[in-house]
Amino acid sequence: MRHGKKFNHLGRKSAHRKAMLSNMANSLIEHKRIETTVAKAKALQQFVEPIITKAKRDTTHSRRNVFRYLKNKYAVTTLFEEVANKIGERQGGYTRIIKTGFRLGDNAELAMIELVDYNEIYGTEENKATKKKRSRRSSTKKYDAEVVAEETTEVKAESAEDTTAEVVEEKVEEPKAESIDNTESSEDENAEENK
């Protein structure tokens, strides 16, 4: 029976699963981003985040504990020197899973797992500038006030456009009326002269 066994076994025995997760963690630390299936990415996320947390404290004990999982001295060195310095202030959530579609052969759902602080695609300074920290109560009042202000400025702008449009139409119509009167009067004069 498998009562109480809640983690994903990934269709492998425990030794194979541990070796696979160790290799994937090494690749993630080395390349900062890897592509795999969603199930493996979720398992890797649970495997690697505690390891990164241990890497925040650069002691011999924590290095030995991390080496016990990764089994690669180059990955451990990269983790402690490069990655831990970059994520030192972050409290958790060091990785991100982005679903990318389905694999052609077996239609498995694919995902990209990456270290959050190493993204080059999005999250640049432009996006950071647009982020605003809002609370629920104050944001709705401010938002309502902003919406009302925007609507009133739009209404004022529309009414100003309408009045300018009417003035332009009137100016355009006046010369036409005079030209029609002139043509009618010239036709009347021509008719009188012909008689």
Report on this structure.
It is a single chain. With 195 residues, this protein is mainly alpha-helical. The protein has six helices and three strands, in the order αβαααββαα. Strands 1-3-2 form a three-stranded antiparallel beta sheet. Strand 2 and strand 3 (109-115) form a beta hairpin. The longest helix has 59 residues, at 136-194.
CATH topology of the largest domain: 50s Ribosomal Protein L17, Chain: A
Name the CATH superfamily assignment of the largest domain. Answer: Ribosomal protein L17
Tell me, rounded to a whole number, the average pLDDT: 80
What is the β-strand count?
A: 3
Order of helices and strands: HEHHHEEHH
Alpha-beta classification: mainly alpha
CATH C-level of the largest domain: Alpha Beta
User: How many helical stretches?
Assistant: 6
Walk across the major sheet and give the strand order. Answer: 1-3-2
Question: Terminal Cα separation, in Å?
Answer: 119 Å
Percentage of residues in helical conformation: 55-70%
Largest sheet: number of strands, sense, barrel closure: 3 strands, antiparallel
Number of domains: 2
Rg over alpha carbons = 35 Å
Please state the second-level CATH architecture of the largest domain.
Alpha-Beta Complex
What proportion of the residues form beta strands (DSSP E)?
A: 5-15%
Global outline: elongated
Low-confidence stretches: none
